[in-house]
Amino acid sequence: MLLKLCGAALLTLAGAAGGGWYAKRLRLRRDFLCDFIAFLDTLATLLRYRNEDIFTSVNSSGELIRFPPEARQQPFAQAWEAQTAALPMRYALSRQDTALLHAFGAKLGATDIQGQLSHIALYRTLFEKQLAAADEDIKSKAKLYRTLGIFTGASAALMMI
Q: Is residue 105 within 8 Å of 81, Cβ to Cβ?
């Protein structure tokens, strides 16, 4: 009987951990979007006041996206796609976040400085909307995920006993 109780407690804890993991993924997405908006602000400042190529400006804008030296051998849009390919899984980005991220890089560096600044301003607004949605997801879903995790673990524990 003691072994069943220990197993039940472990199942409940495992469910709670799973729910906590899903809640943490919501916060990862929000944190990425905050960091990306800061990245866009820094990139706009660097483009406005420095006369550097787009690869150098992106690398100087923060740790979020870095291009290796060999990336300069290909067009910027391809290099952007390659460097941002792993970000959706790492930061639990939604499909809309991913589409915006790829669309942003596809057109960046293709126009003059004023066109790039306008492009950054547009995508900053779009990413701010995604950030607001991420905040709303945290408010509405984080507690739900934790509660469902505990409930699922407790239900499995009761079935075991």
A: yes
